[in-house]
Amino acid sequence: MGAGAIGRTHADTIAATAGFDLAGIADPFDAAGPVAERYGARHHRDHRTLIEAERPDAAIIGTPNELHVPQALDFIAAGIPVLVEKPVAVDLADALTLVAASDAADVPVLVGHHRRHHPVAARAKQIIAAGTLGRLVAVSVTSFLAKPDDYFDIAWHRTAGTGGTFLINLIHEIDLLRYLVGEITAVTALASTATRGLEVEDTGALAFAFDSGALGTLIVSDTVAGPWSWDLTAGDSPRFPAHPVDSHRVGGVEASLTLPTLEVWRHDGERTWTNRMHPQPADRRVEDGDTSPYVRQLRHFGEVVARRTEPLVSAREGARNLAVMDAVARAVATGTTATVRAV
Known about the structure:
A hairpin with a 3-residue loop joins strand 10 and strand 11. The chain has helices spanning about 5-15, 30-40, 45-55, 70-75, 90-105, 120-130, 165-180, 295-305, 315-335, and strands at about 25, 40-45, 60, 80-85, 110, 135-145, 185-190, 205-210, 215-220, 250, 255-260, 265, 275-280, 340. The model has no long low-confidence stretch (mean pLDDT about 95). The strands form 3 sheets. The protein has a 9-stranded mixed beta sheet. It contains 9 helices and 14 strands. It starts with a helix and ends with a strand. The radius of gyration is 20 Å and the shape is globular.
């Protein structure tokens, strides 16, 4: 569903991955017709028509954020598993509606937080879980991007409640932090619209408390000319150039880890600030040779559809990310630290 940038990314991935065929594309706009034709698929004006005409084994929802839950509920009612792009919903209440529907119908939902499928993220998870860094103390994240002005010609990109760098970019960081460091329990946050003057924020500065006692800081902006972001370093998509710098730093009492450069930093000898440190590159190889997180996500989705595994990022996991986002919104509005609601 959806023939925009992320929809075309999924269509490219399906076309390039053995064992998957694109049954059709649902999008109300004429421009989707040539896109569907390029992949040898039929163009449908809405998702309900696609359900009736194609009866697909599964569906990928890459439409504007406010359509995610309504469309997913229709597929669930038809017994069709869905991969729903992030954020899974525009707010926590909608996300919980989807969780309830998925559970009641026993139809799986995978949320498109593709970074969890990146080999670097998987290897970082292993390094942290093995205790290589020792007790986690602090994490620092930078997400600097420079989106062009015409990006905001799309109405929902500039509309509060559906767009803004929090829902579009920050939600990815929340998911990756929860995956690597643990549950976020409290948030302090500031937001600014000063650069573009739109109703949605273009910059945010946040501090997190994790259930382990670790603390984190994060600054996100879609108007900074700089390469320090996952999108511009990890090589997730050919749309974005990859730069040889890091964007995430996870600090422990024994060592620290950089991402996506995947270097473990240790002291030479005794652990003290007067001793020099050196980076040790971690092994980045993957057994199957696939490094594209979108290919790995699609293959995982196939296993979920076949009921051979559970979703790595379930609807409930997506809802937990929105619970953090809900706390971010409350922290911005009140100027205080907000507790994250349990989901």
